[in-house]
Design brief:
Layout: H1 11-14, E1 17-19, E2 33-35, E3 40-41, H2 51-55, H3 58-63, E4 65-66, H4 76-84, E5 99-100, E6 103-104, E7 106-111, H5 113-117, H6 120-130, H7 132-136, E8 145-150, E9 157-162
Antiparallel strand pairs: 1-2, 3-4, 5-6, 7-8, 8-9
The structure holds zinc ion (2 copies).
Residues 100-101, 151, 153-154, 156 line the site of one zinc ion (ZN).
Length: 164
């Protein structure tokens, strides 16, 4: 069982955590999983990081690292948990972590056109920003890609899109 991440509920499904036999550079243990997302650190880890060292903040502390950057105004405890104790994800461009209802949103993963059709509220946002043709070309495994989030307080889904 992986540690639970409030803002990234299924990091195995999103590809931010992968099965791995590598020892964690932070705790030295082989936990069977490694973090596969971005690390923004003062001191780069020499090897893999396990999701447990992300969850308990030891990786953030040891490497002066964060794994994403929440945008907008959120309380400091939210920012610390989302930026420093939550697996980030790789985008085509600088990643964004969306917020809603004064809290960081939960990242659900990359989404293609068919996925976005099931989230009409978030699709409406994308269509307003990028247009229908762009949204029809969204591809979870290619580009452009949408990044889907869910608010933890209301029913709203959120998304942004990018490409190289
Ligand atoms: Zn570890
Ligand atoms: Zn909300």
């Amino acid at each position: 069982m992986l540690p639970s991440f409030r803002y990234h509920p299924d990091p195995l499904a999103t590809g931010s955590v992968v099965p791995s036999d590598a020892p964690c550079d932070c705790c030295g243990q082989r936990r069977g999983f490694a973090y596969a997302g971005p690390v923004f650190a003062v001191t780069d880890p020499a090897g893999a990081l396990c999701p447990w060292c992300l969850a308990d903040g030891s990786a953030a502390e040891r490497y002066e690292a964060q794994f994403t950057e929440v945008e907008g105004r959120v309380p400091m405890d939210v920012r610390l948990e989302a930026d420093r104790r939550t697996p980030g994800f790789h985008g085509w461009q600088q990643e964004r972590w969306l917020t809603h209802c004064g809290d960081a949103a939960a990242f659900l993963g990359r989404a293609g056109a068919a996925d976005m059709k099931r989230r009409p509220d978030a699709l409406a946002d994308l269509t307003a920003e990028y247009g229908e043709e762009f949204c029809a070309a969204l591809d979870a495994d290619g580009q452009p890609t949408a990044y889907l989030f869910a608010c933890l307080h209301c029913d709203r889904h959120l998304a942004y899109a990018d490409f190289t």
